[in-house]
Every structure is written in structure tokens, then in C-alpha cells.
Amino acid sequence: MKLTFLDFEQPLAELNERIEELRLVQNDSALDISEEVNRLTKKSDELLKSIFKKLDPWKISQLARHPQRPYTLDIISSITTNFIELHGDRAFADDPAIVGGLARFNGEAVVVLGHQKGRDLKERTFRNFGMPRPEGYRKAARLMKLAEKFSLPLLTFVDTPGAYPGIGAEERGQSEAIGKNLFLMSSLKTPIISTIIGEGGSGGALAISVSDRLMMFKYAIYSVISPEGCASILWKDADKARDAAEILGITASRLHDLNLIDLIIDEPLGGAHRDYSLACKNLKVAIADSLETLKQLSTDELINLRQEKIRGFGKFKEAS
After folding, report:
1. Parallel, antiparallel or unpaired: strands 263-265 and 213-217
2. Residue 130, exposed/middle/buried by CB under 10 A (0-12, 13-18, 19+)?
3. Helix (H) and strand (E) counts for the chain?
4. Is 194 in contact with 214 (CB distance < 8 Å)?
5. Distance between CA atoms of 196 and 261, rounded to whole angstroms?
6. With contact defined as beta carbons under 8 Å apart, do 252 and 195 qualify?
7. pLDDT one-digit tens code per residue, 259-275
């Protein structure tokens, strides 16, 4: 797959294009230009490090939405085995924006679920761009109850701009479905580990991320609203999304400082889309470590600590 470069990576894109041109010339010519290719490759590596040395929240938002980032099904296939997908909410329909089922993680049976976006227009339309309808969240709830019934750890992967706000979704009880999931996860009698793998937007993300351990990829975002949505509400101008991203506190480092997430998972230089195997390896290690810790707790301890953690959100200081 040809690498897609974002706007702020254009100098890197131009340099890489030049390297590819030289490689083609070298293949079709008797001239040895390997020294020049090596020089430009080294320059490209240095430029990549320079660009990613300090990214602002808006650039991180763009990375979180990168069309080549690993999605939930990519991660499930990489870190688990024997995945069996389960479908439907047993009430209305199957929502392909939420995927999940049974799998084995390091040989242990687990339940996995998460949002799923699409790679091309056809799949994006089929999966509604990763925006679940109520039946998607009810399917997720069914899988959560399955995990609890058979005492299986629950692993969730968050990557959505938000729950679908269409008329049909509202008619079928979108907010009620999300609210029930929040209530269910707060007292689910099995370990829950949630990871923000890309974009975590609003209640659509929260509906599958109430957990004992909440982790984020380094270049993921997690927020009550998208930067564009916030800018549209505050300034009536979506073009001010960069300013909104700054004030929202959506990045992994900011959320970790506020104790709203438990762990930041490192990504390959340039983002998870540049090296799926390394990104998934880091994620697998983090999940395994967290799971080992949580398995030492009794069910009562697990629920008490989870609910204590939830009650600790939203701290504030009174100004004099």
C-alpha cells in the first residue's frame, strides 16, 4: 500500500518521491547512484524525526484519523488468535460499525469488540464511517454480558468520530443504548481493558470504554466532541478547529496528566500506520501486563476500584 502523507508531512512526501524516482533510474541504468539514494534516505529519516519531535494537538488529530491507521479488525487479527465474529443485537439488526466476538489472547479466551471504519468508499459506507447506531451498542452490550457470563476478560478498541446522529438512530433510542452500556460496564463482573486506537469521539466512544484500564495510542485522541464540532459551537466557524484542539485537551499526554487515562502506548516514529506489527506488539504487551494485574483482584475489588475510578473523574479547584 502506497503511504499517504498528511498536509504537514508534505516536505517528507516530496523527498520520498525524489528517492523513488532515483531508485527507478538506478534500476533502468548502468549508473550507480546508490550513494545519492542513501544520502536522501538519511535526510528523510532526519526530517521525519524533526517533524514528529513536537506535534500540536491538531496535527495529532489528523494522525488519529489517518486512513491507513490500523483499525479494530487489523488489531484483533494481529494480537489474538481463533477470532470468531458474532453478529446482531437480537432485537433489530447487525451494525457493521461495531465488530466483536470471541478470541484467544496469549492462549486465554477473551471477548473482543470495537468500532470499525472502512478503507475505501464502499466499506466506509457499509460501516457508516465507524459511527454506530443503537443496534451496534446493543450488540456490544450483548457481548459484554457474554464476557461476564463466562468470566472472560473484555478487550475493547475505540475508534469513532461519535455515535450516528441520524433520525432513525434517534428513533430507536441512541442515547438510551449508550446510557445502558455505561451503566452495564460500570459494574460488569469481569476485567475490562479499553484502548483508544484512533479517534475517540463523544458518547459514541465512551459507550465501550468504561473500564478498569483505559489506554491510548500515542497519536490517538479522546474527547467529548470533535475539534470541528467544538469550533462550530463556540465560534460558528469549523475552520477554527485547530484552536479548539488546543483547548479541548484531547491528546494522550494531556489526558494522562489529568489522570483520565492510565497508560500511553508508544507508536512507531511517524505513526502506527507506518509499522502495524510494532504498534500491535506494543499494544499486546500493554494489554498482557494490565490483564495480569487485574486477574489478581477479586470480583468485588475489581468493581469497587472501577467505580471509585469513575467517581474520581471531573475534579476541580475553586477559584478565590
Report:
1. parallel
2. buried
3. 14, 8
4. yes
5. 10
6. no
7. 899 999 999 999 999 99
Sequential DSSP letters for 48-80: HHHHHSS--HHHHHHHHT-TTS--HHHHHHHH-
pLDDT band with cut points at 50, 70 and 90 for residue 314: confident
Cα R_g (the chain), whole angstroms:
21
AA identity, residue 191? P
Give how far Cα 277 sits from Cα of 82, 113, 135, Å.
18, 20, 32
Determine the straight-line distance between the first and last CA of the chain, rounded to whole angstroms. Answer: 57
Domain 61-311, CATH class in plain words: alpha beta
- Which amino acid type is present at position 166? G
164: cell is 450516528
Q: Where are the domains of the chain?
A: 8-54, 61-311
What is the pTM (predicted TM-score) of this model?
Answer: 0.91
Q: Which of these, 294, 284, 309, 286, lies nearest to 152 by C-alpha position?
A: 294
How far lies 297's CA from each of 152, 155, 191, 258, in Å?
A: 14, 17, 9, 25
Query: What is the distance between the alpha carbons of residues 295 and 315, in angstroms, rounded to a whole number?
Result: 29
- pLDDT given for residue 19 in this prediction: 80
Q: Give dist(CA 197, CA 214) in Å, integer.
A: 11
**How many CB atoms within 10 Å of residue 273?**
20
| Band of pLDDT at residue 109, cut at 50, 70 and 90 | very high
How many other CB atoms are there within 10 angstroms of residue 104's CB atom? 14
Strand intervals (E) in 106-246: 108-115, 154-160, 192-201, 213-217, 221-223
Residue 132's Cβ-side half-sphere holds a number of Cα atoms within 13 Å equal to: 38
Confidence of residue 239 (pLDDT cuts 50, 70, 90): confident
